[in-house]
Amino acid sequence: MNETSSFNECCSYVAALVQERARPHAEQHTPAITISRQFGARGRSISKKIQDALRDGSPQDPIPWTCFDEDLVEKVLKDHDLPTSLAKFMPEDSVSEIDSTINEILGRHPSLWTLSKHTVESMVHLFHLGHCIIVGRGGNKVAEGLSNVTRVRFVGTLPQRIKQMINVHGMSSKEAKYYIKQEDYARQRYMKNHFDCDVEDPLDYDLVINTDHYSDEAVVRFVLSAVAAKQVE
Prior knowledge:
The structure is a single chain. The protein is of the alpha/beta class. It has helices at residues 3-21, 43-57, 71-79, 97-105, 112-129, 139-142, 158-169, 173-195, 216-231; strands spanning 32-37, 66-68, 132-135, 149-155, 207-210. It has one domain (34-222): P-loop containing nucleotide triphosphate hydrolases (Rossmann fold), CATH 3.40.50.300.
């Protein structure tokens, strides 16, 4: 799925929400999902397949299940009337606090704290609306205590993740190992800096899956079962 089609799906999600909320009906306990993942553990591809499976399973839903990964940045900027040029300052491992402070003083963009606050506010809003899959950005911590949200993490051994990066992105083994270590460290640092937690702590998730041992389709079934089970608690 390319970035244009993914962004269009997010726009469709928002449009459906506007129409649905205009109708009088009782408040519903609408489910949502967060996905945390080690780099190379197939998190992005599986997240999209979870979205597709949920849509196929409930084609009549007025609000379609929608996956927010990179598109979450676009939503945060729109929600808070911020210029799209700020997108480059909002990776999961943001620019340094020193660079951020200098740029803030010069009036170039808000502080990292402000951008992080806006991101959390947008995620909370999405979780309450439901039928969303939030990938990364500490969604598991933001959703802590929200009974409608199933918090999932995908992990894998380093050799298997290296193999995944070689097969999918054509990297050499050395390149894959380098990028995996860099990205894993960046995500650990992001969670520590923004939520003061260890991204690897299994108690921060409802379901942790080692994707080494299962196909994408099997992982999708596990996640859907967990979502369904949580709805009947």
